[in-house]
Write a structure and sequence with these properties.
2 domains, binds L-tyrosinamide, alpha+beta, 5 strands, 3 helices, 3-stranded antiparallel β-sheet
């Protein structure tokens, strides 16, 4: 992920040598610096499944099993939630993965001539 912030941390400085006269320093002029890189979390996207009156329930269950890794009981429950509420979040992913899921669902629906709709939105 993009490294958007970093900071310099002084880890150690040369110790002053008490046996040296004024103006006499060691030749080692450096300061040890360490860079800490803070890795940002990527923006996340909700994948939404929308209800319609025509797509068979079994097809929606199959989609949730195949593309979202759900077992049959989980898929059936979430399908019923979409059926009753009109839509539901079926997963949260990075942009590229969310886009792939939406494409897979829409392509499966198209192949079977079902009007099932799947979309994504930023979390
Ligand atoms: N409402 C559909 C039916 O009664 C089932 C369905 C559920 C369709 C979820 C789409 O995303 C959906 N056959």
């Amino acid at each position: 992920m993009t490294e958007l912030s970093s900071e310099r941390i002084v880890v150690s400085q040369d110790r002053i040598n008490p046996y040296l006269m004024a103006g006499e320093g060691d030749d080692d002029t450096g300061v040890v610096v360490q860079t800490r890189t803070r890795t940002q979390r990527p923006p996340m996207y909700k994948v939404l499944l929308l209800n319609d009156d025509f797509t068979p329930m079994e097809f929606v269950v199959m989609v949730l099993e195949r593309f979202f890794g759900m077992n049959h009981a989980q898929a059936f429950e979430l399908m019923l939630t979409v059926h009753k509420k009109g839509l539901a979040v079926v997963g949260v992913f990075t942009h590229e993965i969310a886009e792939t899921k939406v494409t897979q669902v829409m392509e499966a629906a198209r192949q079977h001539q079902h009007p099932l709709q799947c979309t994504m939105e930023k979390e």
